[in-house]
Design brief:
There is one protein chain. The chain is globular. The strands form two sheets. The protein has an eight-stranded mixed sheet with strand order 5-2-1-6-7-8-9-10, sandwiched between helices. The protein is α/β, with parallel strands linked by helices. The chain has two domains: about 5-175, Rossmann fold, CATH 3.40.50; about 180-325, N-(1-d-carboxylethyl)-l-norvaline Dehydrogenase, domain 2. It has helices at about 10-20, 35-40, 65-70, 85-95, 115-125, 140, 155-165, 180-200, 205-225, 240-250, 255-265, 270-275, 280-295, 300-310, 315-325; strands spanning about 5, 25-30, 45, 50-55, 60, 75, 100-105, 130-135, 145-150, 170-175. α1 links the parallel β1 and β2. About 50% of the residues lie in helices and about 15% in strands.
């Protein structure tokens, strides 16, 4: 089985390394030619995954998209949500024809509010699309830390082949047919991670507050996801509560770091201008809030994060507003 990984950020690099070390032929595509040349020469992604060596055997690094996907049986798309449609169109233009595509982005398209699999289906005209999600920081996967993820798609027979191809002694892959649940979980958890970072930045990120935020963030994830057609139980698995815990508590979490800086008083523009990597929660917040309002689903944490990101609201004022809402029964 031949693999192509489109996108040489930390996550794409980590998975390209994993597959090559398993013995599969892999081509890793980097958008910038100079960056591709540096990766090939150094065999280390010093910008996005420093300290992790890349094998020279079986791993080809290129900036030529047609070369990257030539003869690929499986294409992994490790690009941000805002770049997914353009990347899919580029693949369609060069007549890429793999057996399956695996989306690695955890976000929604801001304009259409579509999941990444829906975007790919529109552009690539195939149903053989999967999403890989769960608590899986590239910094840990690249160093072979034990990790468990979930692979979701509709064709479970093909999914089983991909599952076995991806699995290693340190990278366990579960299979699901709830593509919607896995993707909505991946998008919403990034919004809650921003809130977790804001709490930390304000100095209120103690155990009590963080645990409450994760629990009530899960409630928002379940309410919205089930309303949109996902299965409730999916959100209590790896792509839901598992990824929510990791993203809200880890030093590796870009979304938590952005939230922290917001809580410290920096503006969103200042933060984004200083970052080389994408924090998907910034885009997901807009899409999740819009979806929730369209469907009349209550998402108070998302509303608070939106106010801070897009309306210039004071983070402490939003925390106080959440804590002083009308008393309610706990319903999940």
């Amino acid at each position: 089985m031949n693999f192509a990984v489109i996108g040489a950020g930390g996550w794409g690099t980590a998975l390209a390394r994993l597959l090559a070390q398993k013995g599969y032929p892999v081509r890793l595509w980097a958008r910038r030619p100079q960056f591709a040349q540096e990766l090939d020469a150094l065999r280390e992604n010093q910008e996005y995954l420093p300290g992790v060596s890349l094998p020279r055997e079986r791993l080809v690094i290129t900036s030529d998209l047609a070369h990257a996907v030539a003869d690929a049986d499986v294409v992994l798309l490790a690009v941000p949500s805002f770049a997914m449609r353009g990347t899919a169109r580029a693949l369609q233009a060069i007549s890429a024809d793999p057996k399956a595509y695996i989306n690695l982005a955890k976000g929604l398209e801001r304009e259409s509010l579509l999941t990444m699999s829906a975007v790919l289906q529109e552009e690539l005209h195939t149903a053989n699309i999967f999403t890989l999600s769960g608590p899986s920081h590239a910094e840990e996967v690249g160093r072979d830390f034990p990790t468990s993820v979930v692979l979701a798609g509709r064709d479970l027979e093909l999914g089983e082949q991909l599952q076995r191809a991806l699995m290693t002694e340190r990278f366990r892959v579960y299979l699901s047919d709830d593509l919607l649940g896995v993707e909505y979980g991946g998008a919403v958890k990034n919004v809650i991670a921003l809130a977790a970072g804001i709490l930390d930045g304000l100095g209120y990120g103690g155990d009590n507050a963080k645990a409450a935020l994760i629990a009530r963030g899960l409630a928002e994830m379940v309410r919205l996801g089930v309303h949109l057609g996902a299965r409730r139980e999916t959100f209590f698995g790896l792509a839901g509560v598992g990824d929510l815990i990791a993203t809200c508590t880890s030093e590796h979490s870009r979304n938590r770091r952005v939230g922290y800086r917001l809580g410290q008083g920096e503006s969103l523009q200042q933060i984004l201008e200083s970052m080389s990597m994408v924090a998907e929660g910034v885009y997901a917040t807009h899409a999740v809030r819009t979806l929730a309002r369209q469907h009349a689903v209550e998402v108070p944490i998302t509303e608070a994060v939106y106010a801070v990101l897009y309306e210039g609201a004071n983070p402490l004022d939003q925390l106080n507003a959440l804590m002083t809402r009308e008393p309610k029964r706990e319903i999940l």
